[in-house]
Amino acid sequence: MTRTTARTRTTARLTGLGAALLAGGLVLAGCADDDTDAGGHGSMMNGSSSSASSSAEQADFNDADVAFARGMIPHHRQAIAMAELASGRAADPRVLDLAARIQAAQGPEIETMTGWLADWDADGGHMDDGMGGMGGMGHGEGGMMSEGDMAALMAATGAEFDRLFLEQMIVHHQGAVQMAAEEAANGRNTDALALAQSIRDSQNAEIAEMQQLLTELGG
Fold first, then answer.
1. What pLDDT score does 142 carry?
2. From CA 76, how far away is CA 69, in angstroms rounded?
3. For residues 68 and 112, is the Cβ–Cβ distance under 8 A?
4. How far apart are CA 9 and CA 198, in angstroms?
5. Contact 162, 198 (CB under 8 A)
6. pLDDT reported for residue 161
7. In the chain, what are the domain boundaries?
8. What is the four-CA torsion angle of 195, 200, 203, 206, rounded to 10 degrees?
């Protein structure tokens, strides 16, 4: 073999090796680009998922849910204020028992609804202390007692208190049932809807109980 032939073969081998290395580099670069693209798409998908999740959380309640909580909190507060008057005024132990049950049930519900408004970043709106925000006599929106109604209840004792308490609380409960029905028809939040149904069930049962008791007391 001549020196020229050896050099030619060596050059050919080097040229082939260089081509192979170049091809390998291009393949690796292509894989890197694919990984980058996949990573980019993954980031976009993750971002889209996060955005969708956030939107779902925001859509978990609506204006009806907020209105329900804002309205029911002061409504419950007034029911508790009325029930607290029974101690030292009521004559019938069944009225005292009912008043105690109202306080026990509605206190925790106030805390629950207050927590919702905080979670929803919803202003609590105008919520009074439950002692009545209307002057004169006559029931307000949602069966709320007026200042005059509350004053009359505070002044009553014995059998007169029992009768007046039952009459007022029946109207008050009927208002709560109507508010809960509106939430059931228009609300979206599952917890709020569940509470609305619970209020309808429990307070309808108490309305029937109070009507029966009022009849027995001669009201």
1. 85
2. 10
3. no
4. 92
5. no
6. 99
7. 1-59, 60-216
8. -130
Rounded to whole angstroms, how far apart are CA atoms 180 and 109?
A: 13
Q: Express each pLDDT in 94-146 by its tens digit.
A: 999 999 999 999 999 999 999 999 999 997 555 555 555 444 445 557 899 99
Q: What's the whole-model pTM score? A: 0.70
3-state secondary structure the chain: CCHHHHHHHHHHHHHHHHHHHHHHHHHHHHHHHHHHHHHHHHHHHHHHHHHHHHHHHHCCCCHHHHHHHHHHHHHHHHHHHHHHCCCCCECCHHHHHHHHHHHHHHHHHHHHHHHHHHHCCCCCCCCCCCCCCCCCCCCCHHHCCCHHHHHHHHHCCHHHHHHHHHHHHHHHHHHHHHHHHHHHHHCCCHHHHHHHHHHHHHHHHHHHHHHHHHHHCCC
Alpha-carbon distance of 53 to 55, in angstroms, equals 5
Spans of the chain below 70 pLDDT: 1-59, 124-140, 219
**Identity of the amino acid at 161:** F
Q: Read off the amino acid at residue 136.
A: G
C-beta of residue 89 within 8 angstroms of C-beta of residue 156? yes
User: Across the strands, what pairs with 90?
Assistant: 158
Pick the CATH number of 60-216 from 1.10.3720.10, 1.20.1260.10, 3.40.50.1580, 3.90.1150.10: 1.20.1260.10
Q: What is the pLDDT of residue 123?
A: 72
